[in-house]
Q: What sequence folds into this?
């Protein structure tokens, strides 16, 4: 099935949500055609495939569109049954991975709102991150260090990296680090381990280009407000 | 596995999220012990099992806690592999069910906020519901009528019913109907079909008791504000 099927991904090079789909496809070793979308002028196909949200990413598999990044990642894991598996087979561990992915997503949404208004993350948000730092380490890593020497990244790694993998970009652009290695040594070492993985490096957009885009977006935002 | 395992659910009788877990267990025919939580005075066990959100429902299966209602429903479907299945086996259909469940959940959150401030749902929200009315019917029901004569309710039915199954309660308490059969004939007939299912009737709290609770909550809210 994996060999002969037609797989297309509609994405945008800097989108952290499209990155999730790209990374899942890479890790599973699935060949696909990539269509870069201009978000100011979306393609007819994108609007046809995702009439509800009109957003990237959209995965099109044998003509059938799948939307929403986390649903796409689960779909990829289920439609291509060969290993590596992105989610654990064990239902309890799977539930744990889904739980922490949803939790990290909630934190990142609060963080994203803070960054848009260019205010520092609140202490309340930092405390929510303390919970992730402490409990993910204990529950999923048995207090050990994350490593990808013997295993490929999976669903939860993809979610973490898409949300917090570019904190050095945020630091350079906003002038402060949304989270730091002193307070979050476990999460930081996890992200650093992911940065060494070839598939992760393949799909990560160049830092300079992202910063250039952020400057352009800020200018455009200030222009709209003026 | 289903026969010999220990299954406990921590819930609260009127919680629509606990209802999801109860309904999933009923439909799968899983015996369980039920622990009613007093949300003003939560049990030590609840706080120990769900230290992050401290909320019901929590499912405890052979000593392992699973939290968050949608994760619990997926867990139940995966840990008890016998039919009926709550999610379709086909990955594409599964992705569609997950997509629409998330969409309905988003609408219900907006609706919930409107109800808390006792304001009518906005036209924008009603339009979002139009999208669900039209597209779920076309994509998942081939424009036919929902029926549970030959099939048990599944994941998406559980989500829909938990969110919009008590609109008659809302009508009686708030004095207006959050959604009506004229504008949403498909969603209304779907919910009505679900109301005929014995497992659904088993887990639905009595309307009078829910309205009594809503009155008490309003009094307590007004008292806090005074």
A:
């Amino acid at each position: 099935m994996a060999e002969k099927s037609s797989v297309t991904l509609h994405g945008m090079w800097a989108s952290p949500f499209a990155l999730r789909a790209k990374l899942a496809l890479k890790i599973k070793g699935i060949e696909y055609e990539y269509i870069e979308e201009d978000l100011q002028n979306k393609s007819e196909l994108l609007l046809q495939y995702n009439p509800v949200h009109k957003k990237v990413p959209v995965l099109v598999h044998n003509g059938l569109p799948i939307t929403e990044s986390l649903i796409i990642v689960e779909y990829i894991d289920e439609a291509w049954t060969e290993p590596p598996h992105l989610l654990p087979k064990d239902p309890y561990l799977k539930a744990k991975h889904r739980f922490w992915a949803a939790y990290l997503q909630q934190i990142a949404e609060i963080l994203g709102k803070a960054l848009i208004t260019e205010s520092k993350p609140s202490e309340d948000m930092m405390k929510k991150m303390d919970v992730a730092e402490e409990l993910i380490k204990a529950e999923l890593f048995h207090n050990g260090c994350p490593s990808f020497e013997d295993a490929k990244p999976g669903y939860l790694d993809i979610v973490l990296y898409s949300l917090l993998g570019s904190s050095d970009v945020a630091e350079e652009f906003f002038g402060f680090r949304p989270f730091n290695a002193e307070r979050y040594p476990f999460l930081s070492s996890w992200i650093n381990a992911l940065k060494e993985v070839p598939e992760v490096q393949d799909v990560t957009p160049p830092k300079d280009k992202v910063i250039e885009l952020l400057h352009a977006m800020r200018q455009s935002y200030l222009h709209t407000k003026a």
User: Anything to note?
Assistant: The domain at 7-79 of chain B is CATH 3.40.30.10 (Glutaredoxin). The first helix of chain B runs from residue 16 to 28.
